[in-house]
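User: Transmembrane and coiled-coil domains protein 3, Platysternon megacephalum:
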Amino acid sequence: MAAFTVHQAFLHSLLFSEASLVLHHAEDRKGVTLAPAVAMEEFRRAYVQLCKESGAQPQETVLQQLHELREGPGQSRLDFATQSLSVDTCRVLGKLLQDEILFTEIMLSDCMLNEEGVRHLLNGLCSNTVVKSLDLKGNNLRALGAEALGKLLRQNKSIRSLTLEWNSLGMWEEGFSLFCQGLGGNRFLQGLDLRNNQINHQGAGELAMALKCNSSLQELDLRWNNIGLLGGRALLSCLHSNKTLRRLELAGNNVPSDILKAVEQAMDHNQDRQTILAENHSRTRVLSKEVFSLKEEKAKQFLDLMDTIDKQREEITRSSRTSAARVGQLQEALNERQSVMNSLKAKLQMTEAALALSEQKVHNLGELLSATKQEQASMTECQLKELRQQKQEAADRETKLLRDLSAANEKNLLLRNQVDELERRCKAQQDQLFQVKQDLTNTTAELKLRAVQAEERLEMEKKRFKQGLEDVESLRLKEVDHMTHHMEASERSMQERIQRLEAIRIGLEEELSRVKAAAFAERGQAEEELIKVRGQARLEEQQHLDHLEEKLRLMTQSRDEAQNYCLQQKQAVGEAQAKVSQLTLQTEGLKRRVEELQQDLSGKEQEKVAEVNKVRVELQEQIGHLQAERTAQEGLKEKIAALERQLKVLSSNHREALLDKESEISTLQEKLRMKEAEISRMREEEAQRASFLQNAIMAYVQGSALGALSPRK
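Assistant: Predicted structure for Transmembrane and coiled-coil domains protein 3:
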């Protein structure tokens, strides 16, 4: 865990340094608006003007050097090496360098600077944000110079390389202590050259204390000083807490060879650690990119799933609207048929009233014609012949109508058998579909059954038909509401499951950067939760299947009841046909009696003959009405056949749509399985990477511990 925290600290420092570098580069780009030659000329003019304002004389060597720099190629480097600079010149240069953005490298080696001049230069550089390299080699810096350097290191945030070779910083302990304090508080310096600075073991101890606090210095050159055994040990002890220093040169300091070897081993460990941290940083970047891409893919899949759900909802609403429209059409057809039946009943009542009147008239005429029967005996024979012919024609017509009626009944039975067979096939196919499709097919099957029941109950009485239709409509509305509520509940549960799974996945991805044991524990918890969720889903699916089976059983019971009701209606039709036959027999008897009366009346009065002819015309009209009613019934049967054909076409279209939806759902499930397999594979790879990283860190920690203990042994 300590190594992991060190790794995180290094990553934060590295990111901070990169951000600062980007910020400085941006500031450099914003500041440099003039050409380099023009900027160098402006710098020279500003130097001359400040010298005049302060009452000092500009140095010719400085002006000549600036002129050479303006014409030379290296215009980002200010080189005054081996030039003797006065205190006034150093003061002016310090003021100019406070806001100067042209020079990134300053060379002041072997200038024999005065301590006061060094202080002015370094104070000016404290607020500079562009200079990356500073060379103060061979200037005999002492106490005041060390203090100014310490202030520079505390305040400046741009210098990465500082060369202090051939100075005397280590001779004054207080000044060197302030310099070391500034070094300890610096977070940007990466290279420091302290060769030949007369640093003793006490100065080495101060440097060791500074290196314990410093986290940016990577190279330190302490060759040709007087550090000795104690100073070497102090520096070696500080390397246990400093993990960023990669090169430490201690040659020419009277340091024992074992300490030098231990320092080399520590440097090797730091270099290895830096390389491992860089690799880990790159891996974390790659993993973060992969996780981000996975999140984007999951979001796209979730949006696609929501789109498919919305499309299915729209299809369900459209199907419900079409079914409602069809039910309305069926209701209108039923109302029309009811009106036809009512008209037929009214006509039947009118015919019965007419028959009653005719019977009354016949009874009256029978009393009047009883005396004239003997006179019309000769005429009865001719009328009997005509009556026999009419009877024969009526019998032929009745047999033809009976044959047509039996053929229509047989065709009706065949169509009903085909409908039942199609319903069984639909049920057999619907049992194998998904949960939502089962609900859809159940609703369509219920609509078909209700349509068949409505067609079979066309000949019911008015009150029972209306009551049954209201019951069916209320049951359909209840079932549709139940199915919509159930689908909404299932959608909400699926969304909640997706959110829970998404939360679990995010937790697992966050814990991949931790230790192996915590990652495995979280993954085990996630797997247990997945198992629980799957078991719950299976239980809910089983309960839903049981509910659907119960509904199917109820529907089969309702179908059996409808079939029983059809049988009862058939019996009622048979009874009605028997009544019709009885009525036909009665009409034949009445016809015979009318013919006898006509034979009796034909010889006496023309008026009575006219009345008999009127009776005959009325009977013929009644027969025509009956034939018209039969033709209307045949038209209704043809309409029923057309409706059955429409139902077959609709069922075939619905079956094809269901098959298409099933194929789409199977493809979506296959895609989901592939994505889950890919996610599991990536999790395994990330777990392996985490284990490799942990093994590398443990090996490094063990190696560093062994390296730290080796000099003591």
